């Protein structure tokens, strides 16, 4: 859903990436900084119920994490290892955000229903990423679905941030929406992979007509 924004974001971040590369910052350093920052801030703020400030800090590190591609492009530092590391640490960061909320709901937040919902969001989020990775490992593209990583991050961070300002119902609604969209995306990617693996000629023919 937010894929159309990627070219614009890439152009916006390019000058920053150029500046970082000029002072010797590597793509790997940016990736690690973003992932560690998201993980630490999520597990530091959210379990204490500091949802607003936690979301602000996490968002800042998420944006930092987006800079690794810009730094890699201007420094010719793109590599398969860098892509693998970035993808792996993205999963860690995503899990940390939801784990922080889960700790809040099972602790002082005391809301078993939202705790279970958050756990479902975490598991289904892993499912979304795993289906895509497994499909690509079998040689088929599976970049489909209503809720990719960007959409899920925006939804959970906005819901948690606004919820942290004591706006009623925003966080529960956001988590329910995240759960539904994540579940739908898993099914969409499973069906897409099934079709591409069982009807490869049909997809090849369609690709040639566009």
TrEMBL record:
Coiled coil: none annotated. GO terms for biological process: phospholipid biosynthetic process. Its main location: membrane. The chain crosses the membrane at residues 20-45, 51-71, 113-131, 152-169. It catalyses: 1,2-di-(9Z-octadecenoyl)-sn-glycero-3-cytidine-5'-diphosphate + 1D-myo-inositol 3-phosphate = 1,2-di-(9Z-octadecenoyl)-sn-glycero-3-phospho-(1D-myo-inositol-3-phosphate) + CMP + H(+); a CDP-1,2-diacyl-sn-glycerol + 1D-myo-inositol 3-phosphate = a 1,2-diacyl-sn-glycero-3-phospho-(1D-myo-inositol-3-phosphate) + CMP + H(+). Its cofactor is Mg(2+). A CDP-1,2-diacyl-sn-glycerol binds at residues 69, 73, 79. Mg(2+) 2 binds at residues 65, 86, 90. GO terms for cellular component: plasma membrane. This is Phosphatidylinositol phosphate synthase. It comes from Haloactinospora alba. It is found in: Cell membrane. Pathway: Lipid metabolism; Phospholipid metabolism; phosphatidylinositol phosphate biosynthesis. Catalyzes the conjugation of the 1'-hydroxyl group of D-myo-inositol-3-phosphate (also named L-myo-inositol-1-phosphate) with a lipid tail of cytidine diphosphate diacylglycerol (CDP-DAG), forming phosphatidylinositol phosphate (PIP) and CMP. PIP is a precursor of phosphatidylinositol (PI) which is an essential lipid required for cell wall formation.
């Amino acid at each position: 859903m937010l894929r159309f924004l990627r070219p614009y974001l890439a152009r916006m971040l390019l000058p920053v990436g150029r500046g970082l590369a000029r002072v010797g910052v590597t793509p790997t350093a940016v990736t690690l900084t973003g992932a560690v920052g998201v993980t630490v801030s999520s597990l530091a703020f959210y379990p204490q119920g500091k949802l607003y400030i936690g979301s602000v800090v996490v968002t800042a590190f998420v944006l930092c994490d987006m800079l690794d591609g810009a730094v890699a492009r201007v420094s010719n530092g793109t590599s398969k290892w860098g892509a693998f590391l970035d993808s792996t640490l993205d999963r860690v960061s995503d899990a940390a955000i939801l784990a922080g909320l889960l700790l809040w709901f099972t602790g002082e937040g005391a809301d078993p229903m939202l705790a279970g919902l958050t756990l479902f969001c975490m598991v289904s989020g892993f499912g979304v990423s795993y289906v895509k990775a497994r499909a690509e490992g079998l040689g088929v593209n599976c970049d489909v679905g209503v809720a990719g990583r960007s959409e899920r991050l925006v939804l959970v961070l906005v819901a948690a941030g606004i919820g942290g300002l004591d706006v009623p119902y925003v966080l529960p609604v956001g988590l329910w929406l995240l759960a539904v969209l994540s579940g739908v995306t898993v099914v969409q990617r499973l069906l897409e992979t099934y079709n591409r693996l069982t009807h490869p000629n049909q997809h090849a023919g369609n690709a040639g007509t566009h």
